Amino acid sequence: MQRHRYYRQLLLLCLAVIGSFALPGPLARLTWIGYAGLTALLWRLPGAGPWHRILALASLLAEVLWIGAPQTLRLAGLPLLVLFTLFIGRSLRLLLHALAREREVGGEVLAGATAGYLLLGIAGGLLLTLLDSLLPGSFRDSITGLSLNMPAIGSLAQAGHSWDQGFQRLNYFAFVTLTTVGYGDVIPTAPVVQVVCIALSVVGPLYLALVLGLLLSRLSGGGPGGGKDPDPSQRR
Question: Which end of the chain has fewer CB atoms < 10 Å from its terminal CB, N or C?
Fold first, then answer.
């Protein structure tokens, strides 16, 4: 089915975006191509209407402005913070609705559910980066005791390198928080960021328990739409 191919494509693109976080030097900027591709792919989510596509275009435009505004990063980050949060939230809602309508659960459907979980981490990383851009010093390195600041993109070569490193580290921290691993090497200090981190740590296990748990039960025949009808002789 076309929807099942979409699930595979979404999972592969999420994995590519996560893998790009480990790219060194200037190659780290390829992550933004992945974000643009992810926005384009979420554009055609099953059940997406015109408002969803308008929100996708607005998010993509805000992302371009944010990347290309080295002196006004904080101002450009505010609309992206709002638009991308709304867009990802709506995309996850549409994805969950599509997964809930699946009568049979196979590898492709589980791939879509896994992509949704990874999408939560990717969105969390961007959200934390934007918050640190708006509220400098929101994170502290527990080893050095220094604040993890996000310098403006493109102001200096060193600043650009530092920005890439900070962006990669905040994405790492988002996934550590989502999975509730909590290594303790990065500490959120701003109250707003602490609340967002709490939300991530709650949403991660909740997603796994509700979504993947439900789909796995259907795969094993323990839920609606899964397994075969019981033997008529065993019915009462």
Answer: C
Could you tell me if residue 154 is inside a domain?
yes
Torsion of CA 108, 111, 116, 121, to 10 degrees: -160
Q: Which domain holds residue 93?
A: 2-222
Alpha carbon separation from 141 to 4, 147, 185, 187 (Å, rounded): 42, 6, 6, 6
Tokens of 94: 């549409």
Of all residues in the chain, what percent carry a pLDDT higher than 90?
Answer: 22
Per the domain annotation, does 230 fall within a domain? no
187, β-bridge pairs: 140
pLDDT digits (tens, 9 = 90+) for 181-194: 888 889 999 999 99
Strand partners, 141: 186
Domain count along the chain: 1
CA distance 108 to 96: 14
Reported as a pLDDT band with limits 50, 70 and 90, residue 173 is very high
Prediction pTM value: 0.80
